[in-house]
Specification:
By secondary structure, the protein is an alpha+beta fold. Helices cover 44% and strands 16% of the residues. The strands form 3 sheets. Strands 2-3-1-9-8-10 form a 6-stranded antiparallel sheet. Strands 4-5-6-7-11-12 form a 6-stranded antiparallel sheet, with helices on one face. The longest helix has 27 residues.
Amino acid sequence: MCGIAGIFDNNSKKPSESLAKGLQMMLNAIKHRGPDDRGQKRITSKNGINIYLGHQRLSIIDTSNGGHQPMSNNESTIWISTNSEIYNYSELKDELENKYEFRSKSDTEVLLRSYEVWGIDCLKKIRGMFAFAIWDGTNNKLILARDRIGIKPLYYFSKNNILIFSSELRAILASKIDKPSINPTGLFQYLSYGRVGSFESILDSIMELPAGHFLVADKHGIKIQKYWDPITENKLEQSTTKIVQRIGSCLDEVARQHLVSDVPVGAFLSGGIDSSAVVSMITANTPTPIQTISVTFQDKDYDESKYSSLFANRLGTNHHELLLSERDLIENLSPALASMDQPTVDGINTYMISQAAKNMGLKVALSGLGGDELFAGYNSFSLVPRLNKIKKVLNSLPTGLRKQLSNLASRLMPPSDKSTKLNHLIKNQYNGAHVYFLFRALFCEQELGRLFSDPLILKKEITKNLNRTQELIESHSGLSPVDLVSYLEMTHYMATTLLRDTDMMSMAHGLEIRVPLLDHKLVELMFSIPSNLKIKQGVPKPLLVNSLNRKLPDFIVRRKKMGFTLPFEVWMRGEMRTEIESVLLSRSEKLSDFICQAGVNKIWSDFLNKRCSWSRPWSLYVLKKWIDKNL
């Protein structure tokens, strides 16, 4: 994987020296993403458009200079800078070899030639994770494209005939070509859900190219088009046995493709079903033991090492354990926060395990991310449909009776995140147009009212969010409850929290994380399967568990599910308290137009008095630290 950056100058009249310097500063800002090589190129077209392409390389496939970027075709009419792993590049190369004599063994050249032959339709053929920029000099247009799932990020800024793009939002900031300010929508989304949604960002003029979309820029302007959607109306009409066999075949193919690398490949192993499934898949396709790594804690409520070590021994992996303490986190807190491209309530855990993997000598690690979303592993798959039924009953009640129920719940239940959400469910306030958004909420509407200093801004953002989520739900009204939750978990939570955090925290260490369970062919297959087969009473993720060639042992399948979280609830009351408190209780001038300090103080007080969980004050701490560092 790598980092890309570039500037599209559509006759802006800005000095070329200024733009070239801007690109240099952008590359400096993303050097951590690709410490092995740097390349940059200025391309001038006949109609006055100038392109500045840059690249920071992390060498994974063809580590020679043959993979240097930006890379051009033979005539230098097409140039590419890409952050990608194309898993089917060998098959595509076989298809193209009768047309070209390849100059390298890199997947980048295969992607370049694919575009040269098939144009933008090459997106239909490539299989992998990617975010790339292609300058098509023959047609005088720039193309930016992002993979179907959103594994690799791509941001852009457009103003006054200048388009700037990069793998990271902060690289665009580093160009100094413009000075964005806080985006109220991005801030609202962050406080509502603990992350900024897709399309927009925390800053008002920097946008995220959505997953499964491409952008075309030419002298006439910018157009964005969607090229992929996982939803299909046609469901498989096969026996459960046949469906399980198809999933197994797909998983086996995915495992082989995700092992393609010219550097060592390892895997994260938590001891849960998803990571164990991935390790099982890849060990079945490798002749030598792979390296696996897990995080351990002294607090047994958070520690999964018993399961991961047992499974590693069973499969004969070269297993490593990272014992993580509160002191370790404190010592790494500053660089971890500095690695956040946008504020997020999550991600510190990935920073720590990625650092350990890099220190082990790994450049590539496989993750089980995506298993819960595709194979119905979260409790949202059972809880959200139940909440939806409760919502319908509540909505049938008179407003006055609902108000009485709300007051009764407030009196009977001690203050907590759950009681707050229950109260909002009774009041018909869901942080969006469906109870799913209440399930995934960080701060609910009443809490947001205490945090936002301007009620008019909050009211506008609540309306905007309601309309956006209403459109989303209505456009997927034909989905079953299980498929709807799966789709929302993938696009609302996974894409904007888990995948974004995974990319920025791993690339901070120059580590590539691959996610085989998010191969788009597997995703398409899972959405074509009748949803009633995805959930079985007493058996978690039955389709995944039953489809593996190497069956998972009962001590993995039957154990209690644990998320990969750090013991913040304990640590923020211990050694971390001084640091968190000093930031939270200090007024931030840069946030003063949006955030009420009294509201922040109350959240911290509620946490200390066990009225809310750690994620609420932690999110405000991260927000303040990010804003103070980057704006």
